Amino acid sequence: MNNLKKVWWKHFVQDREDMVGLDAAILMNPKVWEASGHVSSFSDPLMDCKKCHERVRGDKIIEAKLGVEAVAGKSLKEISQLIKEHKIECPKCGECDFTEARSFNLMFKTHQGVVEDSAALVYMRPETAQGIFVNFKNVQQTTRKRVPFGIGQIGKAFRNEITPGNFTFRTREFEQMEIEYFVKEKGWEEIYEEWRKEMSNFYENILKFSKKNMRWRQHEKDEMAHYSKLSWDIEYQFPFGWGEMWGIAYRTDFDLKQHEKFSGEKLEYLDPETNEKFVPHCIEPTMGVTRTVLVALLEAYSEDEVSTEKEGKETDVRIVMRFPAILAPIKVAVLPLMKKDGLGEKAREIFTRLKKKYTVEYDDSGSIGKRYRRQDEIGTPLAITIDYDTVGKGEAENTDTVTIRDRDSLKQERVKLENLEKYLEEKLGF
């Protein structure tokens, strides 16, 4: 997860001159959420099964049977009617006997200070975007960035989900990697398309996700959030169906104008070339960390048929997590062929040397074959074996060399210790 966040931050914030990084507060003035519309409208349709008392989201059980388009933009009354008309069953008991749909606000409430009264009420942020909007003026003035420019952040958000599930796909606490890219109203369409291309590039060429498992889907008008004029999602074919990985919305100037209205603070931008004052419009590419990690796990998992020496079996299944090197939890494994004869000591020396730059694992337990398999199962790209040649007790020409095994090709190469870091840099890409 940390590897994913590092890659995203480097690609979209660190390496771009038009981007600034931010870490906004989790607890903010409740007026922020009134301005954004979350207090009044951030809710899900809650229903109870009269038979087994299971609580469900009406929109989700409709979506599971009829598709997302069938429920998009539907009112509470319409959701209840759809369930009755199509005899949609309770996912727990199979009956179709629900209470009427009612609104359930998804924000977590808490209190700030020592007294629990209405004046002390605060909310845990349900999204990270508003922290960027309320800091827009401060960031722009201190960094002197010219529109178009963006503010990126990685942070926790909290939602009181009625029906959390699907592993890490829908949870009450999650992380977002989000960008608010501020533009002039004129010409926003071109910039929007540039961001769509960059999003596809990130998944296909940086994270190496398969194109055949992804698709773009445009939101219907009645499906979009109240602030959005245009929204597209990159969806992934999960085992449980198509689901959003990354969304991009054109939020117009809604957010900054709302915060102007509620705060009384001008959030205009002064164009130094034209002396024009205007409230910037905003394009928002945002992705969930945990959802993307789930995709990375699904993309990486593979089973290979390999020969085996097990009695009564000619082949065996080799489980491999084929993570790209930038996402792999462990980059390199250091494995002494034996613990004795100085091999363990030499391996420890190499391990200490490499861990200054890479995430390295040391393993001397079991046969070398079993250790290779263990590293394959956690997705380690390269495994370094220290043998008798390494310590000068084998072939003379191989003294001070190690064997490096590639996870994917299973190819093994001998590499001189003096060239080890250079070799790893070339293979891993960093």
Task: Kindly describe this structure.
The chain has helices at 2-14, 30-36, 38-41, 58-66, 68-71, 76-85, 129-134, 136-143, 188-206, 254-263, 289-300, 343-354, 368-378, 420-428, and strands spanning 19-21, 27-28, 43-48, 55-57, 102-105, 108-111, 121-124, 149-158, 173-183, 214-218, 230-238, 241-252, 269-270, 277-278, 281-288, 301-307, 315-321, 332-336, 360-362, 382-386, 401-406, 412-416. The protein has 430 residues and is of the alpha+beta class. It has three domains: 2-28 and 107-296, BirA Bifunctional Protein, domain 2, CATH 3.30.930.10; 43-105, Herpes Virus-1 (2-Layer Sandwich); 329-428, 3-Layer(aba) Sandwich (Rossmann fold), CATH 3.40.50.800. The strands form six sheets. It has a seven-stranded mixed sheet with strand order 1-8-9-15-12-11-10, sandwiched between helices. It has a five-stranded mixed sheet with strand order 19-18-20-21-22, sandwiched between helices. The radius of gyration is 27 Å and the shape is globular.
